[in-house]
Design goal:
two-stranded antiparallel ribbon, alpha/beta, single chain, globular
C-alpha cells in the first residue's frame, strides 16, 4: 500500500525519508542548540505553504519578532505567509496549549480547525517537562499531545533539546517511543574540525535511509549532503577512521 508522504522541502532529507514523512506523523527533531532545528522547521512550514498546506508554529519561548528575524536571515519572509493565511504563529505556554487540545471550544483548537492546518511545529517539546515531575503523568501529557495531532492528520515536528540533562528529563515520558519518527541533528568532530551530522533514527511504518549524512546550514536553511564514509563512531561526537 502506498503511504501518503509529506515532503520537508529539504531535498537531501526527503531522499533519506524516501520522499518525505508519512502524512499525519508526529516526528521528534532532536539536536543541541545551534544545530539547525528551527531552520529545518522553517523549511518544512514554508514548503508546505507553497504546496497549499497551511502551517502552524507553536512557540513556548521565542516571541514572533524573534522568529521573523531568524527566518529572514535564511531568506524566508514569515510575515508575508501570515498575511496570506498560509502560516500562523502562536506564542503560548505548554499548559495552555495542552488544555486547548482537550477543549474543542478553545481559541487554539478552533484555529487548528478553521485554518485547515496541515503542518505544525512545536518548539519545544522539552518545555512540557516543567509541568510535572511524575514520569507517568509526563507520559500521559505526551500521549495527549501526539494523539490529538494524529487525530487531525496534522504532520507535526516536535523540536527537542539534545543537551544530555534535558533529553534524559524529557525521555522520562517516553517521548522517543511515542513519536512516529526521530530525526537527530548532531555536531561531530572530524579531524579536529566541527561538522554537522543528520540521521533518521526511526520512522514508523515506512522505510528510510540509515546512513549518517553531512549537512550544513546556509541561505535557504539546511542542505543535506553525502553520507560520512570511512569513519566510525560518528554519533559519539568524536569520529575515528575505519
Amino acid at each position: 500500500m502506498t503511504i501518503p508522504r509529506v515532503a520537508t522541502g529539504i531535498p537531501g532529507l526527503d531522499k533519506m525519508l524516501r520522499g518525505g514523512m508519512p502524512q499525519g506523523a508526529v516526528v521528534l527533531v532532536r539536536g543541541a542548540p545551534g544545530t539547525g532545528k528551527t531552520s529545518l522547521a522553517f523549511q518544512f512550514l514554508v514548503h508546505g505553504a507553497k504546496q497549499g498546506e497551511p502551517g502552524l508554529f507553536i512557540t513556548f519561548e521565542e516571541f514572533p519578532d524573534s522568529l521573523y528575524r531568524d527566518a529572514a536571515s535564511l531568506g524566508f519572509d514569515l510575515q508575508v505567509l501570515e498575511r496570506e493565511g498560509k502560516l500562523h504563529i502562536i506564542f503560548t505556554s505548554p499548559a495552555v496549549f495542552l488544555e486547548s487540545l482537550k477543549e474543542p471550544d478553545s481559541l487554539i483548537y478552533r484555529r487548528l480547525m478553521s485554518m485547515d492546518i496541515r503542518r505544525a511545529v512545536l518548539d519545544s517539546a522539552t518545555h512540557f517537562t516543567r509541568l510535572t515531575d511524575d514520569r507517568l503523568e509526563l507520559r500521559s501529557i505526551y500521549t495527549t499531545l501526539a494523539n490529538s495531532l494524529r487525530r487531525e492528520q496534522i504532520t507535526t515536528l516536535l523540536l527537542s533539546e539534545e543537551k544530555r540533562t534535558d533529553y534524559q528529563r524529557a525521555d522520562r515520558g517516553a517521548l522517543s517511543f511515542l513519536a512516529d519518527g526521530i530525526i537527530l541533528l548532531r555536531y561531530v568532530e572530524v579531524e579536529s574540525e566541527i561538522q554537522r551530522a543528520i540521521v533518521v533514527l526511526k520512522m514508523r511504518g515506512t522505510d528510510h535511509a540509515h546512513e549518517i549524512c553531512h549537512y550544513r546550514v546556509g541561505a535557504g536553511g539546511l542542505i543535506v549532503e553525502d553520507a560520512f564514509r570511512g569513519r566510525r563512531a560518528i554519533l559519539s561526537g568524536i569520529s575515528r577512521r575505519i
